[in-house]
Specification:
Largest sheet: 2 strands, antiparallel
Order of helices and strands: EEHHH
Radius of gyration: 18 Å
Number of strands: 2
Structural class: mainly alpha
Shape: flat
Strand content: under 5%
Helix content: 55-70%
Length: 86
């Protein structure tokens, strides 16, 4: 496995390891944003982008939920009831 400044190259991870790394980086995201130093946030951003990029490279045809698209979001907005103005 090759090393690079952000840890193990995501391309060198097997599928299980890649998913575990993604779960870990997503789980720690909020705390890093709120309490991490600038350098820690930069490193987190870089690692998350590398892992997500590798996942997308491996799964270009992954299932996309209609509700997670721009059109799906607009449809949800149109269905929301209008609240009475006070």
């Amino acid at each position: 496995m090759s090393r690079y400044p952000g840890g193990v190259d995501p391309a060198d991870l097997d599928e299980r390891q890649l998913v575990q790394e993604l779960e870990s980086v997503h789980r720690t995201r909020h705390e890093t944003l709120l309490y991490g130093s600038g350098a820690a946030l930069d490193a987190h951003n870089s690692r998350m982008a590398a892992l997500e990029g590798e996942y997308l490279r491996r799964h270009p045809q992954r299932m996309v939920s209609a509700g997670r698209t721009r059109a799906g979001a607009r449809a949800r907005t149109l269905r929301m009831p209008v609240q009475a103005q006070q």
